């Protein structure tokens, strides 16, 4: 796997390189931000955030979820620590933006975020993380500290022999009354590492 393009990306968090890769599972390219402080020759573990696109949270600062807060916190931390953000284009846990907005309406009627996806005829979580693994291989990253509360993202690397997760860094941010039920569903249904 090789990038389709690579450019310089100054941000409010500091400098990054942005790379676009063809996705293994999506028509949309996977975007990767590599901190200007990233050292490809370092033997130290690299901090990594595997982030699934959430337009409502990442772009419009929705308080229905904690995605935007997780993205901002990650970018600040990764830029400083020389880390990598892998931005996977799998909106709404893989169901797409329009279907996610339909799921919002069902959540307003009492279903949790996973039940709403199933009610619409989708898997409760249809995401894939294969592309993230291939990106890390391209960057020749062997050891990672993964920024996540999601045990599935950690588990992705259990069968990967050439990338070792040496630490899970908690990322519990952006909790407000509007997203308490959403976050609680992640904890109860999918076992996310979230303290009450």
Describe the 3D structure.
With 196 residues, the chain is α/β, with parallel strands linked by helices. Helix content is 35%, strand content 22%. It has a single domain, classed as GTP cyclohydrolase II (Rossmann fold, 3-Layer(aba) Sandwich). It has helices spanning 55-59, 67-81, 91-94, 97-108, 113-119, 130-138, 151-155, 180-190; strands at residues 5-11, 14-21, 30-35, 46-52, 84-88, 143-147, 164-169. α4 crosses α5 (113-119).
The major β-sheet equals: 7 strands, mixed
At the fold tier of CATH, the topology name is: Rossmann fold
Q: Radius of gyration, rounded?
A: 16 Å
- For the termini, the CA-CA separation is 40 Å
Structural class estimated from helices and strands: alpha/beta
Q: Average pLDDT across residues?
A: 94
* Count of discrete domains: 1
- Our count of helices gives 8
Low confidence ranges: none
Could you give the count of β-strands? 7
Under CATH at level 1, the class stands as: Alpha Beta
